[in-house]
Specification:
Helix content: 10-25%
Number of strands: 9
Distance between the termini: 21 Å
Order of helices and strands: EEHHEEEEHEEEH
Structural class: mainly beta
Strand content: 25-35%
Number of helices: 4
Radius of gyration: 18 Å
Number of domains: 2
Mean pLDDT: 95
């Protein structure tokens, strides 16, 4: 995925934005409209608020499209102590924590604190979401019904490895808490397999439907 980052800088803080990773969740616009105003050029003006406030709002971006670097001695973004995996209604899976996305060569392709993972199967930037679920008419409430699909409850701490398998599901390996879209259900564990073709009857978990659906996507080597 091409991930050119646009830069908006002051003496105190630099904000970068990835158009490819932005799905217009609009947390930045809702929380700090004087800094983040779509349609304005430049649309990000970090000098319109304190560096602390800008950093706080940047870190609320659920996809990681927005990032910041401090030049004033302010704290860098810290990964949460618990890795969280949150389903959304009719949309992607939001991951937050110490995240390691594994690339097609089996190596770590991205180390992040925030990601939005496609679960409709239509993204052009798999495994990341690009808002294709809207055009595809993806419909899923983000519920969790199979309580046995998360294995090996373990102690918190450590990185969560996000492993896309070629033409198949997304494996999570490492400690995490998985929450339904409405927050009513939460499972903890260190291993599970999530659907990324959009066809599973056991969403968010894989049930093998990708094979019948002819789903194709890069993944780690078998």
């Amino acid at each position: 995925m091409s991930d050119k980052r646009h830069t908006f800088a002051t003496d105190a803080i630099t904000v970068t934005w990835s158009k490819a990773r932005c799905i217009h969740a609009a947390e930045c616009v809702r929380r700090l409209p004087m800094v983040f105003e779509p349609g304005r050029r430049p649309w990000v003006t970090p000098d319109a608020a304190s560096a602390d406030r800008v950093a706080q709002v940047v870190e609320a971006c659920p996809t990681g499209a927005l990032q910041h670097t401090r030049h004033d001695g302010g704290a860098a973004e810290a990964a949460p102590t618990v890795n969280t995996v949150r389903l959304t209604r009719n949309g992607p899976t939001y991951l937050k924590g110490r995240l390691e996305l594994i690339g097609p060569d089996g190596e770590v392709a991205m180390r992040e604190t925030r990601m939005a993972i496609c679960r409709c199967g239509a993204s052009r930037h798999k495994p990341l979401c690009d808002n294709a679920h809207r055009e595809a008419g993806f419909s899923d409430a983000g519920a969790i019904s199979d309580l046995d699909s998360v294995q090996d409850p373990g102690a918190p701490g450590g990185a969560l490895r996000v492993i896309p398998h070629a033409n198949g599901p997304l494996q999570l390996e490492g400690p995490f808490a998985l929450a339904s879209a409405d927050g009513a259900t939460m499972l903890t564990g260190t291993s599970t397999w999530l659907c990324r073709c959009g066809q599973s009857q056991s969403k968010p978990f894989c049930d093998g439907s990708h094979a019948a659906a002819g789903f194709t996507a890069e993944g780690v080597p078998d």
